[in-house]
């Protein structure tokens, strides 16, 4: 004998979202153990990045809260700048009860193809206040220069 279940459009949307997330490689997990719980998408850990250009250089700023300087690696190979590292999860302590953990932990890798005018020999990185600043200077040949026009 089959049980009659009440149609819940929100549950249907949650299930659809879960199937889509699985299709795109993002695992969904229930926030709590009860059947009426909301679903959370467990995101892969990837720091947010701003890339700014001026006449002298490219500046890549990556947000790395709670990441230690020693856990970050910056490499440049064949025109690809790679930021890699790890944000370690907090250790469970006795007497603490976690109700929700939404922040992502673990390893991350972000790679960026540098433009042709970037000088791979002049790259510097600085880690300050949870933000990684990577500066890539532009090559001298790529910088615009003024050419004087002579009149006879």
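^ structure tokens above, recovered residues below v
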């Amino acid at each position: 004998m089959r049980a009659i279940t009440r149609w819940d459009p929100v549950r249907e949307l949650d299930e659809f979202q879960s199937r889509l997330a699985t299709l795109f490689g993002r695992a969904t997990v229930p926030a709590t153990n009860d059947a009426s719980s909301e679903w959370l998408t467990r995101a892969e850990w990837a720091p947010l990045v701003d890339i700014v250009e001026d006449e002298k250089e490219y500046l890549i700023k990556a947000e790395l809260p709670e990441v230690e300087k020693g856990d970050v690696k910056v490499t440049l190979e064949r025109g690809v700048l790679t930021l890699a590292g790890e944000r370690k999860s907090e250790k469970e302590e006795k007497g603490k009860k976690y109700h929700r953990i939404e922040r992502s932990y673990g390893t991350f890798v972000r790679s960026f193809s540098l433009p042709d005018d970037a000088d791979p020999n002049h790259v510097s990185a600085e880690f300050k206040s949870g933000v990684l600043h990577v500066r890539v200077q532009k090559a001298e040949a790529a910088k615009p220069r003024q050419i004087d026009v002579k009149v006879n």
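Confidence is low (pLDDT under 50) at residues 31-36, 39-43.
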